[in-house]
Amino acid sequence: MKLKQIFFLFCSFTFFFSNAQKQEIKAAFKELNDGYPKRALGYISDLEYKILNATDEDKVSYYYIKGKAQLWIDQKNNNYSENVEIVAQAYKDLLIIERQTGITTYSETVKATLYGLKRKLIIDATLCYREKKYSESGEKFYKAYQLDPTDVENLYYAASSFMNANNFSQALTNYLELKRLEYAGQINFYYAINTTNNKEDKFLSQLERNKNIKMGTHKKIEAEMAMPEKINILKNIALIYILTNSAENAKKAIIEYNKQYHCDQTFDLAELKLYLETKDFLTYKELIEERLKESPKDANLFYYLGIISEKLKNNIDAKKYYNKVVEISPSFQFKDNIESLKSYSEGSKILERVQITL
Asked: What is the C-alpha to C-alpha distance for residues 36 and 34, in angstroms, rounded to an integer?
């Protein structure tokens, strides 16, 4: 008898809360339809954890209200991207439930909203980049990537933006993720404006897009970033380590970079200075001697041999190497202090060149 009473109480309790949830969702929908998104969010704010035990229909309604109301509030505040993570998560949860249950009430609407939101973020991020608002550009590109992680180029553009903003911590995080993903610089889709309806169309290849532009059926989008380059990922990882005085990581990154791009000489001087700073004189000398085989008339290399000889108190060899420098380049500018040989100073020069091409 007691078990029956407990079961009855449990069913009554479940029915009561289920009915209460339905009423709150119904009230939230009314507020949303009447143009009051804040009130709508207020009605469902207590359902955050309870919704897990709700019916699939109620879950779908809850996530739809949460996403739409939040986006509406942000748009009213002229900051549509402020809580884009909340909107995206709500809509993604909705899509998962509808896909699993076969419910298709909001799927198409939500997909279109997410796509439109992503494209707006990308266009705004590109415009910010052109206006040299690099931090803002990086944030928007990263949010676009969070909306759709399959478009990895947006993570690349976020990293480039943060690099230009000298936000090396965030740039490094993004570049390391690109490296982990083995991103090769490809783009999934290309975009152009349809001249008939003035709407954006996407193409699977740049060739197809350009063909339609040439035919006159489409026109080029003004706000468009340059093509991603795989080489910049490893290059900027190494550069950031140099600029943040992470010598051991920098040495490893440069070795990896040189293995893939052995013809590139970007880090030749920086690498030498790193080994000098870390007192790895043996590797330092080996690197110079190896490079002298390829460039026997490089005055800088003999100059660096002179420096290492001085540090090892071998003044006879130092003089010999400095004389060789003058023999090769009579107007060679000798540095008065070792500070000018710091890897950071070389990294700063590389950064100036890199930022022009990012």
From this structure: 6
Q: How far is CA 140 from the centre of its chain?
A: 10
Token duo for residue 36: 């009051």
Whether pLDDT at 5 is above 70: no
In three-state secondary structure terms, 32 is helix
Q: Which of 30-44, 48-62, 112-126, 261-275 has the highest mean pLDDT?
A: 112-126
Task: Tally Cβ neighbours within 10 Å of residue 42.
Answer: 15
What does the pLDDT look like over 254-276, one tens digit per residue?
A: 999 999 998 788 888 889 889 98
Angle at 342 between CA 338 and CA 347, to 5 degrees: 150
Tokens 């030749």, residue located: 268
Contact criterion met (CB below 8 Å) for 58 and 25: yes
pLDDT bin (cut points 50, 70, 90) of residue 77 is confident
Superfamily for the 257-357 domain: Tetratricopeptide repeat domain (1.25.40.10)
Domains of the chain by residue range: 17-105, 188-226, 257-357
For 54-66, b/e burial (b = at least 16 CB within 10 A) is beeebbbbbbbbb
Contacts of 293 (CB under 8 A, 6+ apart): none
Closest to 195 (Cα-Cα) out of 177, 219, 223: 219
Longest dimension (CA), the chain: 108
* Cα torsion angle, 187, 192, 194, 199, sign: positive
Q: Token pair for residue 307?
A: 């420096």
- Give the neighbor-by-neighbor strand order of the sheet with 200-203: 200-203, 190-194, 218-220
Distance CA 89, CA 68 (A): 12
